[in-house]
Backbone:
């Protein structure tokens, strides 16, 4: 299960601090983070099976990260690859709210997902489980395979750890 712990506007030098772990199936091929040859503005790892990514940033500060929403009872093998949601945002020009609006039309084409996206100064959260976009407020947050800031033990532990690190470095 993937984990993203992040802080917005909590450190005097850094508007966004991110700690993430991708623990997709170990046999799923992926390339490490690097600038893409076909999209030289994108810095991200790449899913070599479907061509998308789980987290990335562009040279001009567009940022996106995705986690799967875990609900085995609703999983369908024929759904589109969720990694293209991150890739499409990073390579596109739509502002975050317009991009989220465009997702509403196709959100059910994907298995459950959570998407954080925006820029290093302003992030938004969208899950196809809620079908609504919301701005992410300043603070330390956590996202795993449930909704944003759901109090899973690993989310709470990660948030507490990042809060301590930021306090010690501020």
Residues:
């Amino acid at each position: 299960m993937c984990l993203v712990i992040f802080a917005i506007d909590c450190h005097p030098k850094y508007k966004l601090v991110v700690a993430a772990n991708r623990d997709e199936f170990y046999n799923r091929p992926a390339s490490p983070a690097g600038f893409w040859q076909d999209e030289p503005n994108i810095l991200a790892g790449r899913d070599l099976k479907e061509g998308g990514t789980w987290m990335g940033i562009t040279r001009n500060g567009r940022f996106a990260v995705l986690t799967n929403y875990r609900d085995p009872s609703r999983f369908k093998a024929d759904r589109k690859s969720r990694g293209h949601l991150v890739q499409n945002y990073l390579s596109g020009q739509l502002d975050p709210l317009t991009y989220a609006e465009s997702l509403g039309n196709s959100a059910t084409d994907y298995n459950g997902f959570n998407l954080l996206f925006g820029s290093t100064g302003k992030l938004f959260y969208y899950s196809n489980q809620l079908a609504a976009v919301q701005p992410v407020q300043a603070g330390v947050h956590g996202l795993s395979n449930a909704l944003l800031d759901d109090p899973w033990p690993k989310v709470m532990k990660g948030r507490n750890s990042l809060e301590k690190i930021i306090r010690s470095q501020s």
